[in-house]
Amino acid sequence: MGHGLIAWIFIGIVAGWLTGKLMKGSGFGVFMDMVVGLVGALVGGFLSRHLGFGGVGQHGLIGSIVIAVIGAVVLTLIIRLISGNRSANL
């Protein structure tokens, strides 16, 4: 059972906000944190599926948020490595 568009927006907002709180340094801003959360859900779903845990939409709302946060953290680390933002103290 998958999530609808409103659920994905909610997951993206929550995942982006949580990632901004978990990672040291400044966030990307409200809109970009939401985008990072949404893309993080894709990254987390990809990692989850390939590690044998199933896709992001198969775990309910809380499980989807957790997977999205993990994906958003990974994505944030990659963005910081590419952009050279070493001052954030990964």
UniProtKB/TrEMBL annotation:
<dbReference type="Pfam" id="PF04226">
    <property type="entry name" value="Transgly_assoc"/>
</dbReference>
<feature type="transmembrane region" description="Helical">
    <location>
        <begin position="30"/>
        <end position="48"/>
    </location>
</feature>
<keyword id="KW-1003">Cell membrane</keyword>
<comment type="similarity">
    <text>Belongs to the UPF0410 family.</text>
</comment>
<feature type="transmembrane region" description="Helical">
    <location>
        <begin position="6"/>
        <end position="23"/>
    </location>
</feature>
<feature type="transmembrane region" description="Helical">
    <location>
        <begin position="60"/>
        <end position="82"/>
    </location>
</feature>
<keyword id="KW-0812">Transmembrane</keyword>
<keyword id="KW-1133">Transmembrane helix</keyword>
<keyword id="KW-0472">Membrane</keyword>
<dbReference type="InterPro" id="IPR007341">
    <property type="entry name" value="Transgly_assoc"/>
</dbReference>
<protein>
    <submittedName>
        <fullName>GlsB/YeaQ/YmgE family stress response membrane protein</fullName>
    </submittedName>
</protein>
